[in-house]
Each structure stands twice: as C-alpha cells, then as structure tokens.
Amino acid sequence: MLVKLFGSAVYGVDAKTITVEVDTPGGVIGVFIVGLPDNAVKESTDRVISAIQNSGFDRPRARIVINMAPADIKKAGAAYDLPIALGILAATAQIPQDQLHDYVIMGELSLDGTVKPIKGALPIAIQSRAEKFKGLIVPKENAREAALVNNLEVYGVENISEVIDFFTGKLVLEPMKVNTREEFFDAQSHFEIDFNDVKGQENVKRALEIAAAGGHNAILIGPPGAGKTMLAKRLPTILPPLTLHEALETTKIHSVAGKLPGNTSLVAQRPFRSPHHTISDVALVGGGGIPQPGEISLAHNGVLFLDELPEFKRTVLEVMRQPMEERRVSISRAKVSIDFPASFMLIASMNP
C-alpha cells in the first residue's frame, strides 16, 4: 500500500516541505530509504522499528521502500523519525491514512516511542501555514515556539502513541495557543543586567549611548578591570526595543541553530554574543556541510562583542569585512548556496 505524508527540511533560515512516500512493493524483507538521506536518516530505521514495537504495534514483515522527495535535496537529522514511523504503520494497514496528508509531522523518536525535540520548529510552522496545511505536529518542547505562527493548528506530542490515537480518533489533542504579542511585550522589559547599574564612567557611557543611537561600531581600550566587558554586556539594554518582525526574524535564526533558550519561545530582547578569541572562521560567519548560522548571524539585530580583539586570528577578522558591509553573509557550497542575515553592532575591547 502506498502512503504519502509530509515533513519539512530547514535550509538557511527557511523551510522546505518534504514528501515522505512509503510503499510495500513486495520482495526481500527490509526497510530501504531513498531520496538522498544522510547517515542520521538512514539509521532511523532501527529507532523507528523499536519505537513501533515498544508502542504495542507489530514489527513490519515486508519490503518497505521510503522515498523522500524532492530526491535531489539532502535530508539530514533525526527529525524525520516520526513521519517515517507513521508512514510504515499506515502502509502496513495498522493505522488509517486518510488524514495523514493534512498535517506536517516532525519529531525524533526514542526507542520507547518518546518524541524528542527538533531544531527549526518556527520556520517549519511558517512554511506549513504558507502551504495551507491543516496543522503541524511537533514534539511538546517545540509546540510553543511553533505556535507563534497564527492561523495554524499546532499540536505538541510526547510520544508516538499520542499521535496514533489522534489519527485513529481515540484522543483529542488541544492545539497550542500562544498570544504572540502579549508574550513579546511582557518579555521585552525584563533584563538581568542593566546599563543603569553602571556608576561613573560618564565619558565611556556617553560614547556607547552615541554608538547605540546611530548603530555605530565601537572599540573600548583600557587596562584589565576598567569595566570594558561590563559596559559592553549592558549595551543591548539601551538599544531600541526589537519590533515584533525583528523578534521573529531573530527567533528563526536561533531556532535553526538550536540555540533557543528552553524557557522561552520568542527572542524578545536584542541578542548579545561574545565568542572566544580561539573561534574559527566557519564558527564566526557560519558554514559546515549543511550550512548553519555562525556567531555573526546569531548576533543579528543585536551586539557582537569581541573581547581581546588583537588575540583573534587575522583571517577571522578579515571574513567579517563583507558581512559588516552587506548586513548578510552568503555561504556557498558545491550543492547549495544559503544567505544568513547578519546585521549587528560590533563592539570590541583590547588592552592598551
């Protein structure tokens, strides 16, 4: 039986819908995945089979072919476990398939069937709404983040049994509701540290106030203990508050990188990033086999602080030249080219 359901892949800060096709054509028993999967996706078969058995369903005893389309785009990560498992159960007639195609389904599975969190839930939700899917099913830990997108039913699940019961009608899941604007405005004014804490230092404070007003870069030169790092950390608290659009844009980047704080679903304050001086070029500007955002993108709409500026490698400082001018960075690889936003204030410090 051929079954089609939908997942999503994150490229850059945007998502692309992936069609997961599962068929039982007959032949040698086993599970075969095609469609340019990486090792994490290939290994999903063992996790999925164990999760299916430990959730009280029968181990499939047939040849199962899983195609992930578009087949020319690399599929990476363990977040496809849940749609693959549901596809196998539907293809072997253990659950009905009539509603599966209405939802985008994503989640990593443990061997006991527990659904574990994923990266990039916010861009996946945005793309799901754009393509007019009825709803999105994600791990419970990602539900608040995905529910920032309105006009889309987002369901958070803890294990595969909940999803199966939802599709068989045994369980009614309540969609996650988040008042995005209320959460955004509540979180804007709660700072752990504040520029107001600084006593004295009037000349430095005036310089940083001018830099904050105009979005200028600045360098602080002074002996150890003069308060350079302390002042730089407090700079985001005098920058203009993020707009809701900027907050969502910043949240997307942190979501894709897996850097979203566990206690929040929205980055409502300007980010402050302070990488160590041993950082590599790729870690600063972004990259990797499947390009991920670097520190300059994580500092988008906020402050990038380079402490002990002369200690950074020359090549690391040189690669920032173009992103600082263009306010974005283009990561090009043999098979993919991705743009990450990188509009940040650069604050550096050094000893005399």
Shape: elongated
Please state roughly what percent of the residues sit in beta strands, choosing from under 5%, 5-15%, 15-25%, 25-35%, 35-45% or over 45%: 15-25%
CATH architectural name of the largest domain = 3-Layer(aba) Sandwich
**Helical amount:** 25-40%
What does the average pLDDT come to? 91
* Measured distance between first and last alpha carbons: 73 Å
Neighbour order of strands in the largest sheet: 1-2-4-3
> Mind describing the biggest β-sheet?
4 strands, mixed
Q: Which structural class do the helices and strands define?
A: alpha/beta
Tell me the number of strands.
Answer: 17
The CATH homologous superfamily of the largest domain is termed: P-loop containing nucleotide triphosphate hydrolases
- Stretches where pLDDT is under 50 for at least 5 consecutive residues are none
Total domain units: 2
Rg result: 23 Å
> So what's the CATH class of the largest domain?
Alpha Beta
**Count of helical regions:** 14
CATH topological fold name of the largest domain: Rossmann fold
Short description:
This protein is about 35% helix and about 20% strand. The protein has about 350 residues and is an alpha/beta fold.
List the helices and strands and how they pair.
Layout: E1 3-11, E2 14-23, E3 30-34, H1 39-42, H2 44-54, E4 63-69, H3 81-91, E5 103-105, E6 108-109, E7 115-116, H4 121-130, E8 135-139, H5 140-146, E9 153-157, H6 160-168, H7 180-188, H8 202-214, E10 218-221, H9 228-234, H10 244-257, E11 272-273, H11 281-285, E12 286-287, E13 292-293, H12 295-298, E14 303-306, H13 314-318, H14 321-326, E15 328-332, E16 337-341, E17 345-350
Parallel strand pairs: 3-4, 5-8, 8-9, 10-17, 11-14, 14-17
Antiparallel strand pairs: 1-2, 2-4, 6-7, 12-13, 15-16
Helix pairs in contact: 2-3, 4-5
